[in-house]
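Quick illustration, no need to memorize.
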Amino acid sequence: MRRPRLALVPGEPAGVGPELCLAALRRDWDADLIVYGDPDTLRRAGAATGDASAPAPGVRWVEIPNAAPPEFGRPDPANARAVIQALTAAAADCLAGRCDGLVTGPVHKAAINAGGIAYTGTTELLARQAGCEVVMMLANEVVRVALATTHLPLRAVADAIDARGLERTLRILHGALLRDFGIARPVVAVLGLNPHAGESGHLGREEIEVIEPVLAALRARDGFDLRGPLPADTAFLPRALEEFDAVLAMYHDQGLPVLKYSGFEQAVNLTLGLPYPRVAVDHGTALDLAGRGLADPSSLFAAIATCARLARGRMASAAGVAA
């Protein structure tokens, strides 16, 4: 079976993405990397950080020039269009089968919006482009955390959690654990929305009226092994996590602080439900470190390794052979 072809997008040109990509390109990943971006930006990153080493053999480019030369640490909204174009071009090649997976570096949301492009997140962008519903999941060696809602103000979260959306999220998560992670019978812990998972209705009724009925229906109808709704303050205890293959949090900051505390440098961000694997770094643009050679490439390395593994699994499944 051939090596997977992975599209690699550095992200915000003024952030740490370009220098992290340079570090990644020096390695052999048992995958062919195709960089979607501006070669001059990576050369500038190499000059700024003193990294003059050559990339590994076989690296290819889809050149997407920036409108303005980046000044590391200072995002320029003029480059927003090139950042988005790199993401959508790489994703289009994944959808067309020219690439087998997508790895993305960190982007700067404020700079993209200041550049006149309405943008809430790459997860949402890729879902619209592919015309499918997706789930955001972050993972490290300790825990996998999926999200029922993503980038919403806290006051909007309760209204966004409904039976249809929750069932869809659990089906996508369950399917990804089966297909991409090879877990024969996934066990998913589902968190409650309210403190103490609502305390039998005394601290909120979302658990009783929305979450519990969905879990009961999926258990009875489809045989899903779903635990909960569980209080978020005890679901992440180490002994409890040993029983779960993934945790579904109701909102962004309910689950992700625990994941990042347990292993921030090795954490990756996966978009479940796309027709191709997409894995991103689990950190921002780190503008204060950009161009200084101080950024830790561990998350990008983990993202590439994870994406290559998932791509090989999908390729093997399509070919009817063992990965």
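Residues 298-319 form the longest helix (22 residues).
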